[in-house]
Amino acid sequence: MQTIRRSYAIFVESLRVLAQDKEILIFPLLSGIITIVAFVSVAFAGHAAGFVDEFQKGNRALSYIALFVWYFISYFIVLFFNVAVVHCASIRLKGGDPTVADGFHASMQHLGRIAVWALVSATVGLILRVIAERSKIVGRIIAGLLGAAWSIATYFIVPVMIFEKRSLGDSVKQSTSIIKKTWGESIVAAGGIGVFIMLLGVAGLIFPIVALFFSPMAALVALGVTIVYWIGLSIVSAALTGIFRTALYLYATEGRTPAGFTPDFVQNAFAAKPVKSSFALSRG
Question: What separation in angstroms does the CA of 190 have from each of 76, 230, 246, 250, 264?
Fold first, then answer.
């Protein structure tokens, strides 16, 4: 119950921070739109180049090349806008007033790092895909576990990458170090945000269900409204996750509670050792 209460409080406090800078929502919105446009463009280009015919002939090598290209493009798009979210959240959590231009400027400034990390992510994604396909059920389980471990280890990779300007290897080590200190709470909190968003999403089903009692057309219209509502929730969820992730990162590196968050909730995110002493050990 204590964990649920903290997760809910973190969800609400992240929502309050977002309410002060609603323009942050433009980044996950654009990320989704551009990803869809990119997917359609890649699919059309692949069809025009005759790749579809090769796929049907079982050309596995070409399939993997196409998949790698798509992974790189999609990861690059997501990372580009995640950097903007984290940078704007950092400005707000430090008492500033961010603008959309601040987010885009930060993303453009770190374009090289974003491209390199997208390349790494695409490589890891392709390797996991190969493992999953080659070993059937066992391979899917192994790929799922490795993918989860990779996602957890790189949870703080974006703030580390843009604020500390470390090398690629050091960035992963630093992200892993922070996740060890925030072990449990960072994952639970992120999951908690997802759970509350999911509950709100399920609640949206009430509209088409009720409308069904009136007429099929009313239910269809209500379903369309619900889909738009779900898209909005996914955008809010991405922004909230970025905000809280940034708050945890700032507390881990600066030792003070970011503006907008209750000290107890953020401090409870860390393992037994005091934050400052544990950081001193990791740096010493």
Answer: 22, 18, 12, 16, 17
Task: Kindly report the pTM of this predicted structure.
Answer: 0.80
**Amino acid identity, position 84:** A
pLDDT in tens, 95-125: 888 899 999 999 999 999 899 999 999 999 8
Q: Can you give the chain as a three-state secondary structure string?
A: CHHHHHHHHHHHHHHHHHHHCHHHHHHHHHHHHHHHHHHHHHHHHHHHCCHHHHHHCCCHHHHHHHHHHHHHHHHHHHHHHHHHHHHHHHHHHCCCCCCHHHHHHHHHHCHHHHHHHHHHHHHHHHHHHHHHHHCHHHHHHHHHHHHHHHHHHCCCHHHHHHHCCCCHHHHHHHHHHHHHHCCCHHHHHHHHHHHHHHHHHHHCCHHHHHHHCCCHHHHHHHHHHHHHHHHHHHHHHHHHHHHHHHHHHHHHHHCCCCCCCCHHHHHCCCCCCCHHHHHHHHHC
